[in-house]
Amino acid sequence: MDARFNLFANELAVKFGKRFANASTVIEHSPLPKATQELVSLRASQINGCAFCIDMHTKEAAAAGESAVRLHLVAAWREATVFTEAERAALALTEEGTRLADAHEGVSDETWARAREHYDDDQLAALLALIALINAANRLNIMVRNPAGAYEPGMFASMRG
C-alpha cells in the first residue's frame, strides 16, 4: 500500500511537519505522564481509524516500557482493571474530545469534572493540546492514506529542533 501523497517529500509539508513536531515537544516535556500521553494518542487514533498513528503510538509506548496488556486493552479501557483513575479520566476526555460531532454538548460536564479531579492546570493544558494535536495528525495521515507497519520508535526525533 502506498500513500496518496508523500508528506515527507513535499517541502511545504515538511516545514509544517517540523512545526507540528515542535508543538508535540511542548507536550512531551510537560508534567502530563508519558504513559498517559501514549494511551491518549493511541485511543484517539483507534477511534479515528488512523493505522499509521496506531502503529506509531503502540511502538513508542512499548519502547517506553508500556505493557502489552495495557496496550491491548486501551480500546476497552472501561471494562479493564489495568488503568488508574487518572488514566481513565484522560481516556474519557479523549473519547469525548475526539467524537465531538457525536454529541451535541461535546465534552460532558461529568467528564470534564473527572479530568479536573486528576490533573492540575499544566497537565490539563497538555492533555487538551495533545487531544487536539493527535486528532489533527490522524486526519492528515488518513487523508493521504499513510500506510502502517514501518514506523520505528524515535523515527521523527530529527524533525524536532
UniProtKB/TrEMBL annotation:
Recorded hits in Gene3D superfamilies, A to Z, give:
AhpD-like
| SUPFAM superfamilies, alphabetized | AhpD-like
Q: Name one Pfam family in it.
A: CMD
Lineage of the organism: Bacteria, Bacillati, Actinomycetota, Actinomycetes, Pseudonocardiales
Q: Superkingdom, according to UniProt?
A: Bacteria
Note the InterPro entries from the entry.
Answer: AhpD-like (IPR029032), AhpD_core (IPR004675), CMD-like (IPR003779)
Name it: Carboxymuconolactone decarboxylase family protein
Q: Which NCBIfam families match?
A: ahpD_dom
Organism name: Allokutzneria multivorans
- Domain Carboxymuconolactone decarboxylase-like, which positions? 25-96
